[in-house]
Write a structure and sequence with these properties.
This protein is α/β, with parallel strands linked by helices and about 290 residues long. It is built from eleven helices and eight strands. Helix 2 crosses helix 6, helix 5 packs antiparallel against helix 6 and helix 6 packs parallel to helix 11. The structure holds zinc ion.
């Protein structure tokens, strides 16, 4: 009798070990942790409510500034899929990736093979954002094959939207008489490369790199010599730099959103990647097609 009880206990423990395997948590839904808003948006558009998706970098926080907590690290070890941008945006994510992969988490560095020169801003190019979404799609299918058909249908629709956005950018910006944009930080290199524009950033690939007084003078000179009408600023970073340039040159400020997160207002309005990219195109058109 006693032997049987022990046997049962061991069996329960073994089964417990098996049933506690990842896919059985969250009502059988895949637990997916995603660093940035754009990647979260793409994932949601592919997987809808078939997954339990968590956006790591909160609304209102700019992606370059975010630092993970130890609590987050513990949660990541238990999730099924971890999706991040790469290209140096979340250096912490690149560091923990091998250890998470070793614990059985499907990790997706969406910028691998796409981002170059330590410039992470690939999502601002619809063509490259589509490649990021492709990696997300493939990882979801791999981790959750029973929903593959559903993901595949949604993903086809999402690909069409990227293609449509790319065509719209190409058509509009091919009419651009002016090609230079003065931006707050160097977030738009890929977008400029795709549509034949030139970016003149006040600060570097990260907005926290303070420009030198010499750089500020160069920007002011550039604006005066090249008929620049707007200095672009960002919703989630301090407008101080753009303000002082605007004041010095007498030109206006306009938003060009690097989409490194949504603001609370954008979220409340139901904005998404595509609506903000449309607004960005309107801003570019105002400055360049005139
Ligand atoms: Zn940036």
């Amino acid at each position: 009798m006693k032997k049987n009880v022990i046997f049962l206990l061991v069996l329960v423990m073994l089964l417990g070990g098996c049933t506690a395997a990842r896919p059985m948590e969250n009502d059988g839904k895949l637990s997916v942790y995603i660093t940035t808003y754009p990647l979260y948006d793409f994932t949601e558009k592919i997987a809808g409510d078939r997954i339990d998706a968590v956006q790591i970098i909160p609304t209102g926080v700019e992606a370059h500034e975010y630092e993970p907590s130890p609590q987050l690290m513990a949660k990541l070890e238990k999730c099924d899929v971890f999706i991040f941008n790469g290209g140096g945006l979340e250096a912490w994510a690149e560091k923990v990736e091998p250890s998470l992969a070793g614990k059985g988490v499907v990790t997706v560095n969406t910028g691998k093979g796409i981002a170059k020169d330590n410039d992470p801003h690939i999502w601002l190019s619809p063509k490259r954002a589509k490649q990021q979404a492709d990696k997300i799609y493939k990882a979801l299918v791999k981790a959750d094959p029973k929903n593959a058909e559903y993901y595949s249908k949604n993903y086809a629709g999402l690909q069409d939207r990227f293609d449509g956005l790319d065509r719209e950018y190409a058509d509009t910006l091919s009419q651009a008489k002016y090609k230079d944009i003065v931006t707050t930080h160097a977030a738009f290199s890929y977008l400029c490369e795709d549509y034949g524009l030139r970016q003149v950033p006040i600060s570097g690939v990260s907005p926290d790199s303070e420009p030198s007084p010499k750089r500020m003078t160069e920007i002011v000179d550039f604006i005066r010599k090249n008929g620049i009408r707007y200095v672009f600023f960002e919703p989630l970073t301090s407008p101080k730099l753009a303000d002082s340039i605007a004041e010095e040159t007498g030109i206006e400020k306009m938003t060009l959103d690097p989409l490194e997160g949504l603001t609370e207002q954008q979220k409340a309005k139901g904005e998404d990647y595509f609506s903000i990219m449309e607004e960005n195109l309107d801003s570019l058109k105002k400055e360049l097609v005139r």
